[in-house]
Every structure is written in C-alpha cells, then in structure tokens.
C-alpha cells in the first residue's frame, strides 16, 4: 500500500463515519436510506461493476465517489450477499492510486476461474500539461487487471493495454471491459467512440487473460450514437446477446441485435399498458418500503415486481422492429 492509498483509505473512512454519525443523530438524515436497493454509505453511486458469484458469495462492486454527491474521484465500492436480498457493505475495494488510474477506477467486470476472481476495469487519466478537449486528446483509457483469491483482499494492479494498443481511428474514449471464455479462448469487449463520433464495441482475444490482441469490432449499419459504453455480452439459452449504453441518442430506444442497431419509437402504442404497469410497480415498491423489515413480505413483493417487469418485456417485444 503506497502513501496515496493510505491517505485515500483514511479520507473515505472519515467521510463514511461522518455520514453515519449524522444519520444516527437525525431522523431526517436517515429516513431516506434504502432498505432493499444498494446505496453507498455517503456520496455518489453509479455503474454496477464486477457482478459475480464467488466461493458461494454474491459480489456487487459499484462506481463510488464518497467525497462528492455529484461525482468526483471514482473508486469501486463493494457489497456482498448470500441471498441477493440482504447485502453487507465491505468497504472500498479499489482506489485510484496508480499512475494509470489516478483520476478514476472506471467501470469493468469480474471473471471467475481456477478459484480466483479477475477484475478488469478502465483506469482513467486526464493529462494536465496542455490544452486538451479530453475526447481526442489529453485522456488515457487504460485497461487494468486486479486478482483476488478470497474476494476480500486485492492484489497488485497490472496495466494490460493503453490507448496505443487500440485501433488508431478511435478517440481517447475506450472503456469498460467485459471478459468471458469460449472454446478455450478468452474474449473481451470494450466500448469505443471513433474519430467520426460513431459508437462501436471492440473485440479482443487472449490465451492467458493478460496479453490481449484486437480482433474485430461491432458496429451498426448506420451511425447509432457517438459512444457505446458499458458493453455486456452474455447468453440466455441458445441466444447470444450484446447490450451497451448508447450515448448521443434522442427520442428513441435502441436495441442491438445481430450486429444491427434497431429503433423502437412507437411509444404511443404501448403508453396505456405501460402506465398501468408503472402504477402497479409503484404500488409494489411502496409495499417494499413499508415492510422492509419483514423478509417474507420483501420476497413476496420482489416476486410480484418481477411479474410486472416480465409483462413489460413481453409488451416491448411486440413493438421491436
């Protein structure tokens, strides 16, 4: 642990304890604390990262900025659970304490193999020795790996790729690695923004989880947003799915299917049914809040909410074009 890490640990502990004391002394300060959903001890929460089950325990890491409720220096907070209902806060897992991630431990994923958890993330760096736009110049998006064997202590960080390792037609915005294994080969997808402001997903491959080579890219037939971030690849049954958060869209919902971006904009056709479902969802969430201390009631409410979401997905499927 270097001096920067030690100072960050102390600062985070101070901020969290200060908020805890405030909530203990004031009903108004603690009445809005979530009972079911994950919530940071203090400050700002954003993307969930590294969701996995490891050694019988579920892990949920998340973008965490304890010093600024509007987002500031970013690190990974950490929750664990045995049942995905009751979660325990485990503190900060990863701090921005290296030259290749000093302005933020950005989003990434977890990969489990051979009794180890491999955490991949983007180390964000903003250069300060010149005039930059931080889109095409002045930013580093470094791919970083950390390994843990117990889910509690995290080893030395290893920088795997820098901007110079990505295709040269891209801006500085390459981030959010997701890793999986298929047919003996490891694959990684990352979100990217081209110099022409077109969103894409980059595909890399590796034989050892450490040394990666660019293989291909996924893009839409026509430009679909200027940046595709937080990509995720997974299978449901025999279907292969790629999801991504698309930046730069207005007035539509994007659905990526078979490497083609499709658009759903017929909101009026489903408005009445979705409004009814939304009202039902709000009623269920209200019950969860009122009965949060009774675990049996929470399980019942969650199951009811799942039925609502399933119905909403069925309706949306009817209008996918």
Count of alpha and pi helical runs: 4
| Beta-strand residue percentage | 35-45%
* Helical percentage: 10-25%
Q: Mean pLDDT, as a whole number?
A: 85
**How many β-strands, per DSSP?**
16
How does the major sheet shape up? 4 strands, antiparallel
- Flag low-confidence runs: 258-278
Rg for CA atoms: 21 Å
Oligomer: single chain
- Helix and strand sequence: HHEEEEEEEEEEEEEEEEHH
CA-CA gap between termini: 53 Å
Question: Helix and strand layout, with pairings?
Answer:
Blueprint: H1 3-25, H2 27-30, E1 44-54, E2 57-65, E3 75-81, E4 87-94, E5 105-113, E6 116-126, E7 139-148, E8 158-161, E9 170-182, E10 185-194, E11 199-206, E12 212-218, E13 227-236, E14 239-247, E15 253-257, E16 260-264, H3 267-290, H4 295-318
Antiparallel strand pairs: 1-2, 2-3, 3-4, 5-6, 6-7, 7-8, 9-10, 10-11, 11-12, 13-14, 15-16
Helix pairs in contact: 3-4
């Amino acid at each position: 642990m270097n001096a920067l890490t030690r100072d960050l640990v102390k600062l985070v502990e101070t901020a969290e304890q200060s908020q805890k004391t405030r909530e203990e002394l004031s009903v108004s300060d603690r009445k809005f604390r979530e009972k079911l959903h994950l919530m940071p001890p203090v400050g700002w929460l954003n993307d969930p990262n590294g969701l996995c089950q490891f050694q019988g325990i579920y892990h949920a890491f998340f973008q965490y900025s304890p010093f600024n409720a509007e987002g500031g220096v970013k690190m990974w907070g950490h929750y664990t659970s045995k049942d995905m209902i009751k979660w325990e806060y485990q503190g900060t897992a990863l701090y921005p304490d290296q030259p290749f991630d000093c302005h933020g431990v950005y989003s990434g994923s977890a990969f489990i193999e051979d009794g180890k958890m491999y955490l991949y993330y983007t180390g964000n760096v903003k250069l300060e020795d010149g005039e930059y736009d931080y889109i095409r110049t002045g930013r580093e998006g470094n791919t970083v790996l950390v390994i843990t064997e117990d889910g509690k202590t995290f080893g030395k960080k290893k920088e795997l790729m820098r901007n110079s390792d990505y295709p040269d037609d891209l801006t500085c915005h390459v981030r959010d690695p997701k890793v999986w294994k298929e047919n003996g080969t490891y694959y990684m997808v990352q979100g990217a923004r081209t110099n022409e402001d077109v969103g894409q997903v980059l595909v890399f491959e590796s034989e050892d989880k450490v040394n990666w080579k660019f293989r291909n890219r996924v893009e839409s037939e026509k430009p679909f947003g200027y940046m595709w971030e937080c990509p995720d690849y997974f299978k449901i049954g025999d279907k292969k799915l790629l999801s991504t958060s698309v930046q730069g869209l207005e007035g539509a919902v994007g659905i990526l299917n078979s490497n083609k971006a499709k658009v759903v904009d017929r909101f009026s056709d489903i408005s009445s049914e979705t409004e009814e479902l939304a009202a039902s969802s709000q009623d269920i969430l209200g019950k969860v809040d009122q009965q949060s201390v009774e675990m049996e009631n929470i399980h019942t409410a969650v199951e009811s909410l799942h039925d609502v979401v399933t119905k909403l997905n069925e309706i949306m499927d009817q209008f996918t074009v």
